[in-house]
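Reply to dn_fold:

You asked what the input looked like. This is it:
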Amino acid sequence: MKSFLIGAGVLIAAASLASAETKAGLTESVTIAGKTVSIKYSAPAVNGRVGKLFGKDGQVGSDATYPVWRAGANAATALHTDADLDLGGLAVPKGDYSLYINVANPAAWELIVNKQTGQSGMTYDAKQDLGRVKMTIGKPPAMVEQLKYTLTGAGGNKGKLQLDWENVAASVTFTVK
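and this is what came back:
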């Protein structure tokens, strides 16, 4: 019985650790006006680092690309759009892009749409930027353990891209052209 309880305890501990690790290969998508917009990303976990993720002394601040953050983990976060978009005022032609976020100002993040694709999230070339747009910053209703992207329709040909992680909710609206 004692070995059974020890084994069960080890399995529970392993499951808890696994759930707090990065999840790779996640995809979020929405279809608006018959066109699909999708994001492929890896989602890091807060993993006990509440208040220690953002800022130059935080986890993200240790990235070589800081204050530009890969907006996820592992490979650069990928955006695919079947249609031309107006993303927060930035014209984004249909195609494939990488997303980064400038987190230098905690109250005013900028979403960066980069033309380079397929690279590591730690490889960022500002010369490849299509452009940058201001994000709306807020707080989620509760702390978000695992980074999450959400793409939602907002009626007609409009949508919203949102990232939630830790105590930050950052979003930008878009229009499918």
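The chain is about 10% helix and 45% strand.
Hope that clears it up.
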